[in-house]
Amino acid sequence: EHDVPTAIAALESADARLATVSDPAVAEVRAQLARELATLRAVNVPDINAALSPLTAIYAAVPSFRVRGAPVAAARQLEPAPADQPMGAFERAGRRLQQAWSDLFSYRRVDPSRSRLVTREEESLRRQQFELQLFAARIAAMQQDRSAYSQALHSALGLLDESFDPRDEAVGQARTELEQLAAIDVDPAVPEVGTAAQLLQRVIRASSPRQSP
């Protein structure tokens, strides 16, 4: 079941029981057990919780990531006149024209790398797509699904590069952590065990008294 620590504990318990048996035939079984234990102990068992914790932290930080492009600002509304200063129709029209004229000739320096306008809907969609890949990577890690885990993290890295500003410190930190997480093998290859059990079965059958016909 790819549960290496439990397999090691089970074989160690079996070896401890066999150590109490004086039958010389058991020595071969214990020697095979020792070989199987050595191969299991050599497996680099991943710390799944160590992968889940950074994924959770990145997920929580997504709302603060700065997107690529210039977010579309909401239209500025005309400030209402004070209650003690009523305005006539011509005064209100003049005030609106004054504000429109001011807005028309207001300038703002825009970075060329972020000059593309991004609506709030698009910004929200970007964040949701990125969060979805983080969630998929988390599920794959818990299920120790190597292929799904790797695919989700590489998709998340692609979305991070496409959708968010790399100059944002939080974005850069998330990218570094995702690259480190992608290097984790959540489902390392495990050796075959069971030969010792087969040998033990042979010893048991050979030592069993034969029934007379």
pLDDT < 50 stretches? 74-78, 104-108
What share of the residues does DSSP label as strand, in percent? under 5%
Summed up, the helix count is 8
Number of strands: 2
**Radius of gyration computed on alpha carbons:** 33 Å
Order of helices and strands: HHHEHEHHHH
Helix amount: 55-70%
Q: Could you tell me how far the N terminus lies from the C terminus, measured between alpha carbons in angstroms?
A: 43 Å
**By helix and strand content, what is the structural category?**
mainly alpha
- Please give the order of strands in the largest beta sheet: 1-2
- Anisotropy-based shape: rod-shaped
What is the average per-residue confidence, as pLDDT, rounded to a whole number? 82
Largest sheet: 2 strands, parallel
Give your account of this protein's structure.
- There is one protein chain.
- With 213 residues, the protein is an all-alpha fold.
- It is 61% helix and 2% strand.
- The protein is built from eight helices and two strands.
- A two-stranded parallel ribbon has the order 1-2.
- The radius of gyration is 33 Å and the shape is rod-shaped.
- The two termini are 43 Å apart.
- About 5% of the residues have low confidence.
How is this structure best summarized?
This protein has 213 residues and is an all-alpha fold. Helix content is 61%, strand content 2%. The chain has helices at residues 4-18, 26-41, 48-61, 89-104, 120-142, 146-163, 169-182, 195-207; strands spanning 70-71, 117-118.
Question: What layout of secondary structure does this protein have?
Answer:
Layout: H1 4-18, H2 26-41, H3 48-61, E1 70-71, H4 89-104, E2 117-118, H5 120-142, H6 146-163, H7 169-182, H8 195-207
Parallel strand pairs: 1-2
Helix pairs in contact: 1-2, 2-8, 3-5, 3-7, 5-6, 6-7
